[in-house]
Design goal:
Elements (H helix, E strand, L loop, with lengths): L4 E4 L7 H10 L1 H4 L4 E5 L1 H11 L5 E3 L5 H4 L4 E5 L15 H17 L5 E3 L5 H6 L7 H8 L10 E5 L4 E4 L6 H7 L2 H19 L5 E5 L14 H15 L3 E6 L7 H4 L4 E4 L2 H11 L5 E5 L5 E4 L16 H16 L3
Parallel strand pairs: 1-2, 1-5, 2-4, 3-4, 5-12, 7-10, 8-9, 8-10
Antiparallel strand pairs: 6-7, 6-11, 11-12
Length: 334
């Protein structure tokens, strides 16, 4: 039985509603997998009217979304009103966004959805409302805690041109350096390799591990972390039979010829991983969370308050996230 994807509302004042509407309008042209949107139907209908597009909404149960998808955009209400105007979050924003995420996780863990696709959230809005997680990844891990079997969730940014995994994620650079350890690199790489095997059909994933310092430390003259932290982790992974190279200079890892030599790059901190993939694939990169007991993807961009409610938002990354979630679900059906 084909199950739909659960698509969260994201920040109601952001571009999540816009790209959701645009993606659904291209469902036939692009042969998109069926999905349903979790949120406040009234707020989504207000956005549809503001955009002046011909989209019919249908409030449904998750089980009925596939049958509805061809003729109407399926909406599963969360019971949480969203009153924010485009570009202007209000007191309802955080409650609506978090309710949508909770419902999506509940649906996929109950078997009503094949995966979760999350529209962008505004972390500063959530923080002001008392949200205590660094981001989506950590919140999803907490919601799945009773069934999670890995030490931690791992964030992968994937595109046809490049896949990257940062070892440290949503922390300052100073904190990233404090967190970095051989154990963390090994754990992150193991989860990435398992995800590449399970969801991407790679029997023997090829892994490239970056150094931390310029020129991978220049044999210790520009920093010792490559010798004391990164290289020992690479040796452990190699001893486990993983095809891995490193530590490699980050400034020469991402040109076209280099990318052909590996399936995924393990990077030491957030920007070391995200700058190259956003440069190469800004419009179609997808955020994938590995190590969860369900499939989760997301567009690799933010809420873009400055263009919310206009015709300018580009749905390409959301479309890529929907397609990748469906591909991952097909590779490992529940």
């Amino acid at each position: 039985m084909v199950k739909p994807l659960a698509l969260t509302s994201g920040e109601p004042a952001g571009i999540g509603p816009d790209i959701t509407i645009k993606a659904w309008l291209r469902r036939d042209e692009l042969k998109l997998p069926a999905f349903y949107w979790l949120g406040d139907a009234t707020s989504l209908d207000t956005r549809i009217k503001a955009l002046g597009v011909n989209v019919r909404l249908a409030e449904v149960r998750p089980e009925d979304a596939c049958d509805t998808f061809a003729n109407a955009l399926p909406v599963v209400p969360t019971g949480q009103a969203a009153t924010a105007r485009p570009g202007h979050p209000d007191d309802s924003s955080a409650r609506a966004a978090l309710a949508s995420i909770r419902h999506a996780v509940g649906d996929v863990m109950a078997g009503r959805a094949s995966g979760v696709v999350t529209n962008p959230i505004a972390k500063n809005v959530l923080y002001r409302a008392g949200f205590r997680h660094p981001g989506h990844t950590e919140y999803l891990a907490e919601l799945a805690a009773t069934k999670i079997s890995t030490p931690q969730p791992v964030m992968m940014l994937w595109s046809p041109a490049l896949a990257v995994v940062p070892v440290t994620i949503h922390v300052s650079l100073r904190e990233a350096l404090a967190q970095l350890s051989s154990d963390l690199i090994v754990t992150t790489a193991r989860i990435a390799v398992a995800g590449l095997k399970t969801h991407f059909g790679l029997k023997n994933p090829r892994i490239a591990v970056s150094g931390l310092n310029p020129h991978a430390g220049e044999d210790g003259s520009l920093g010792s972390e490559e010798n004391t932290i990164v290289a020992p982790a690479v040796e452990i992974l190699r001893g486990e039979g993983i095809e891995v190279r490193g530590p490699l200079p980050a400034d020469t890892m991402f040109h076209e010829a280099a990318r052909r030599t590996y399936d995924c790059a393990i990077c030491m901190y957030h920007d070391q991983a995200l700058i190259p993939i956003k440069t190469l694939a800004f419009e179609d990169a997808v955020n994938v969370t590995l190590g969860l007991p369900f499939i989760r993807t997301s567009p690799d961009h933010g809420t873009a308050f400055d263009i919310a409610g206009t015709d300018r938002p580009n749905p390409s990354s959301l479309i890529a996230a929907l397609r990748l979630a469906a591909r991952m679900a097909a590779a490992n059906p529940a």
